[in-house]
Amino acid sequence: MQKQPSVIGGACIIGGVCVGAGMLGLPSSGAGAWTIWSSLAMLITMLMMTASGWFLLEAYKNYDLTASFSTVTKDLLGTKINILNNLSVYFVGGILLYAYTTASGGILSELAKPWFSLGEWDSAFWSILFVLLFSFCVWHSTRLVDRLSVLLIVFMALSFIFSTYGLAINIDLNILFDRANLDGSYAPYAIAMFPVALTSFGYHHSVSTMRAYYGEERKAQYAILGGTLIALALYLLWVFSIFGNLARDQFAPIIASNGDLDVLLNALGNVVQSESVKNALNAFSMAAILSSFIGVGLGMFDFLADFFQFDNSKAGRTKSWAVTFLPPLLLSLLFPLGFLKAIGYAGAIATVWACIIPALLAYKVRRQNTQNPFRVWGGTPLIALVIIFGIFTAAAHLLAMYGYLPIFSQ
To answer: Taken in order 187, 192, 195, 199, is the CA torsion positive or negative?
Structure first.
């Protein structure tokens, strides 16, 4: 008798899907809200995104184990809604590739400056080299991406442990809880953090994979909960480590630069005395960006190959590579908006397929089949709450973008 996969293994998969370059935007987006309110925003987001993933499991219940998100959405909500859903997936994937491309150029140019510099063309050169080198892995084969991903996860784990350990042992509680500014305002700044937090809990394209992996919904449900809890714990450890070392007022120039990672890393480097911890921070940042880049890139590559019906020949894969990686690279070179702003856009649009569509699918399934043996607790109120959260998160990004939300600047 074949042994069933463990829930812990599935939880690690979901946690790995969530944790990536998105976490690099959390400290900057949470600087205004600081420690307590940032933690609360991440907790709320984690709970809502866990519920929405469970709603997808409920919607999949009466479908074959191979059924995809697109197939179920088209069947239950119709072609027009499915097109909207697919467009949101495409937009989020594209904007994330754009963000990773831009961030990699900034970090690599800073690291290479002592040995190599092209002046104002530094970031552009390194962004192009980064995309050409690592998008080749996606073009070559999924197997090569798989092997590289394993190496990156190990490297990212080691550099994360070393950097957070180096920061954690130097945490100053006065800085962590901003005791020098006890009369400061924090809660209003938490609203603008939600789009970045939502992006950091994006795993929904893997829900159907988890269901097929276990062959049933209940274990997949537990794995999703375990995975989002792992992600939350790592995010809190990361944010606490940074907020305990870098004072709140030192985030002003980072936010003014739209959260550019090289500015954040330089600021941390100025307060962290250990050269090895600085190097570990840079290594972790690049590993997180690269891991997310090839993961998102592979998903987009397969999605667009299917959408445009490109075959799996070298010519077909080259066409898929071109439509996947060249538009984000071109936009990165022409409009380097900044990492944090790009992640915010991704979070706003991701609300469509990560919150609203899963809740609508669960609502439709419940109306069609009142005897579904797998049903998420909370009834219609929880469905409404997830939809409201999605709309609220998208609105938060729009309000922040047009200056209707307070922006932390000192």
So the answer is: negative
Q: Provide the angle, in degrees to the nearest 10, between the axes of the packed helices 339-351 and 79-112.
A: 160
Between the alpha carbon of residue 47 and those of residues 17, 42, 55, 56, 295, the distances in Å are: 17, 9, 12, 15, 24
Domain assignment present for residue 409? The answer is no
pLDDT digits (tens, 9 = 90+) for 228-268: 999 899 899 999 999 998 888 888 888 877 766 777 877 88
Q: List the domain range (segments joined by +) for residue 241.
A: 7-402
* 54 neighbors 217 (Cβ within 8 angstroms): no
For residue 222, tell me if it sits in a domain. Answer: yes
**pLDDT greater than 50 at residue 331:** yes
With 50 as the cut, is the pLDDT of residue 1 above it? no
Contact (Cβ atoms closer than 8 angstroms) between residue 369 and residue 62: yes
Spatial separation of the C-alpha atoms in residues 295 and 293, rounded to whole Å: 6
Q: Which of 297, 212, 261, 231 is nearest to 20 (CA)?
A: 231
Q: Which amino acid is at 147?
A: R
CA distance 206 to 12: 12
CATH number of the domain that residue 144 is part of: 1.20.1740.10
Residue 196 contacts residue 61 (beta carbons within 8 Å): no
With b meaning 16 or more CB within 10 Å and e meaning fewer, what string describes 77-111? beeebbebbbebbebbbbbbbbbbbbbbbbbbbbb
Query: Which residues, at least 6 apart from 398, have a Cβ–Cβ distance to it below 8 Å?
Result: 348
Residues 359 and 383: beta-carbon distance below 8 Å? yes
How many CB atoms lie under 10 A from the CB of residue 143? 9
Per-residue CA distances from 165 to 19, 175, 237, 302, 385 (Å): 18, 17, 10, 38, 37
- Higher-pLDDT residue of 57 and 289 is 57
Is residue 156 included in any domain, yes or no? yes
d(CA 240, CA 340): 19
Cα–Cα distance between 167 and 15 in angstroms, integer? 22
Domain count, the chain: 1
Spatial distance between the Cα atoms of 28 and 38, rounded to a whole number of angstroms: 11
> Is 408 part of a structural domain of the chain?
no
